[in-house]
Every structure is written in C-alpha cells, then in structure tokens.
Amino acid sequence: MTTQDSVPGKGASQIVADARTTTPEITVGQARKELDQGHVSLLLDVREPAEWEKAHIPGAVLAPRGMLEWYADPTTPYAKPEITTKRDAYIIVACASGGRSMLAAQTLQSMGYTHVVSMAGGFNEWSKQGFPIEGIQER
C-alpha cells in the first residue's frame, strides 16, 4: 500500500485537475499577448510574499492564496479595491507553476468574478520564456 492509497479523499493534484474542468486556462504566451494589447484589467499573483519579493511580473498585484477570499470580498476589512472593483473585468491569475492560480481562479469564479482565467505554467514558465520580470532577480 502506498501513502496515497492510505489517504482518504482527493489529493492536491486531483483537486487541481477537477478545477481545470470548469475554469479557463491560458498559456503564458497568450497572457503576454493579452497584457501587451491592454486587454487585461488585473494580473493577480497568488504566490507568497517571499516568492513575490524575489521576482514578479511587472504590473501584477500580490494577493497570496491564503488571503485571496478576504482580499476579494468587499465586505471584509482586508478587501483590496484593486481586486474588488474588477468583478466583471478580465483577470489573469498567476502563481509559480499553475496549480495555486487554477484554484484561485476557481475561487474567484465562485465569488462572482465573471472573467477569470488561470495562467498555465505560472511565473516559472513566464520567466523561462524570457518575458519581463522585476524584483531581485530582475534581468
């Protein structure tokens, strides 16, 4: 018996796979094109602050995954207007590799945000493609 066999319920990979069945996903190339053309109202980075400080995509707004629901809910004292005012706008959600952003995009959809997509491959793929970054690891 493997460890996975002894754990009841779904694992993280299955939860992300399930989210992919209902939540749109775009490539980093598509995201770059949409950003360059000015079609994106918000690029939301759901990584942790330490990841963000090392490097991030220019113009992205930080909202760590663990605080997303509070930042995106206008009725909480933690609400971020740069998020809450974008309920019907085009939002791209990014993380390191695409898992957290998929779950975050699904969460935003369930909160009533209407045009949310996850960026497949996340910041790692963005950086690998040589697209612009800023922060400590800035090129």
Automatic annotation (TrEMBL):
InterPro entries: Rhodanese-like_dom, Rhodanese-like_dom_sf, Thiosulfate_ST/Rhodanese-like. Residues 42-135 form the Rhodanese domain. PROSITE patterns: RHODANESE_3. It comes from the Bacteria. It holds the Pfam family Rhodanese. SUPFAM superfamilies: Rhodanese/Cell cycle control phosphatase. This is Rhodanese-like domain-containing protein. It comes from Dictyobacter alpinus.
